[in-house]
Amino acid sequence: MTVEYQYLRPRQMVERREAMPAAYMGLGILEWHGLHNPLGLDGVKANGVACHLARTLGGVVMPPQFWGDCRQYIGELDFEETFRPVFSVPENHFDHTRPICEALGLEKAAFVKDAMRSRENGKDALWIQLMAHTMFQIETLGFRAIIMIPGHYPLIGSLDRAMERYKEEGGQCKVKAISDFVYHEGGLSGDHAAAVETSLMLALYPELVDLGELDPDLAKPNIGVIGRDPRTHASRELGEKILAKFVLAAEEFLKESGLQ
């Protein structure tokens, strides 16, 4: 079933919008997500979730956004020894950035330079402006509710500010952000290329994941993977459980917005 705006003919889009005037949009960036996952995982995952919601609840999916983020918060640059996310485990407490850049055939200095340029240009100011502008564009297409799906967790705070800006400037759509953090069970929630993200990819795009790329020796840590080891904890079944939580959260929002 085609649910993405750019692939729909006018009659098809209008039919879907009239049945459910909700738009979904995945937000991601381009960064390392382990040897086993694609480099665009955040946006690919978020777009896959958006398509799943549209097929399940109705509505239309807008093209995902990959560009314009503050390049300071990426695996190629950020995962140094001092990196201590709340979902980390002790084996990940070493400098991942050097082997990541080596695997990509790139210099870390280039990422450092880009992060400095981004900070000098206002960090996430451009991205916030772009997202607020995008929400107005979605509104002009006749939708009454917008569900944003930030696949990259550092985008969540910026997205909150973009939604506030949209409302302050007169935006009329109901707006909500839903991330992987809707899933909290067995000590799992959001992570980076570990059990949660890899499981979502196995449920949405299994052809893009290759766990065989990871070292079979479980005593050796995965490079640029933060969270429960995907070699032992990732599965399609877990991904489907996470998708079900997305559906419940989106369904509740649509009901609160008077669309169901």
Task: Summarize the structure in short.
This protein is of the alpha/beta class.
Care to describe what's here?
The chain has ten helices and four strands, in the order αβαβααααβαβααα. With about 260 residues, it is α/β, with parallel strands linked by helices. It has a single domain (about 5-255), classed as Creatininase (Rossmann fold, 3-Layer(aba) Sandwich). Strands 2-1-3-4 form a four-stranded parallel β-sheet, with helices on both faces.
Overall geometry comes to: globular
Following the backbone from N to C, one meets helices and strands in this order, namely: HEHEHHHHEHEHHH
Distance between the termini: 21 Å
Helix count, per DSSP? 10
Strand order of the largest sheet: 2-1-3-4
User: Measured on Cα atoms, how large is the radius of gyration?
Assistant: 19 Å
List how many beta strands DSSP finds.
4
CATH class: Alpha Beta
Mean pLDDT score, rounded?
94
CATH architecture descriptor name: 3-Layer(aba) Sandwich
Give me the secondary-structure category: alpha/beta
Strand count, sense and closure of the main sheet? 4 strands, parallel
* CATH topology (level 3) name: Rossmann fold
Segments where pLDDT lies below 50 for 5+ residues? Answer: none
Strand content: 5-15%
Report the oligomer.
single chain
How many domains comprise the coordinates?
1
